[in-house]
């Protein structure tokens, strides 16, 4: 009961700030998705296994990214958020995707080089994935099944709590260092 009340208070603050909250909340259902984000795995940008379960007990901000998008400068804010909160239990995880406007056409090596050279990115990144369509990554299929929607564009952000449950969803226009996103992150840090 205490967790439900805390989650409701945090989500209430996020709603006031204008963050998109999934439809199950509006229907009076539990905000947390069934299962856990930690049940899913990716490949990292270097082709190695990247299990979300390795981040159990930490908060994760998972962002679908693109190198040729109007929101691409958000990489700078994501890196700043990572540097500010990594030591407090936040993982920023970039998931490059070419789903929206063909704005991530490069290979993993090209994406990695672009991010390192232009934004000094050192937070973890996945290999290129699909957030929609027939090749949708299982994590994004889970998000869509639980929330009724998925990202509408590049740089959509999902905040996952230390327990692996979805906590909030932020549309592309919400900047990584915005007050509303930082407030949500601080509310779920371990």
Write a brief caption for the model.
The chain contains 6 helices and 6 strands; from the N terminus they run H-H-E-E-E-H-E-H-H-E-E-H. By secondary structure, it is α+β, with helices and mostly antiparallel strands.
Note down, in words, how this protein is organized.
With 190 residues, the protein is α+β, with helices and mostly antiparallel strands. It has a single domain (2-188), classed as Glutaredoxin (3-Layer(aba) Sandwich), CATH 3.40.30. It is 34% helix and 15% strand. It is built from 6 helices and 6 strands. The chain has helices spanning 2-17, 23-26, 74-85, 108-119, 138-147, 179-188, and strands at 41-43, 49-51, 59-65, 90-96, 157-160, 166-170. The longest helix has 16 residues, at 2-17.
Q: So what's the overall shape?
A: globular
C-alpha Rg (nearest Å): 15 Å
Number of domain modules: 1
Mean pLDDT: 85
Total of helices: 6
Please identify the oligomeric state: single chain
Strand order of the largest sheet: 4-3-5-6
CATH homology superfamily: Glutaredoxin
H and E string: HHEEEHEHHEEH
Give a short account of the largest sheet.
Answer: 4 strands, mixed
Uncertain spans: 1-33
Indicate the percent of residues in helices: 25-40%
- In percent, how much strand structure appears in the residues? 15-25%
How far from one another are the termini?
19 Å
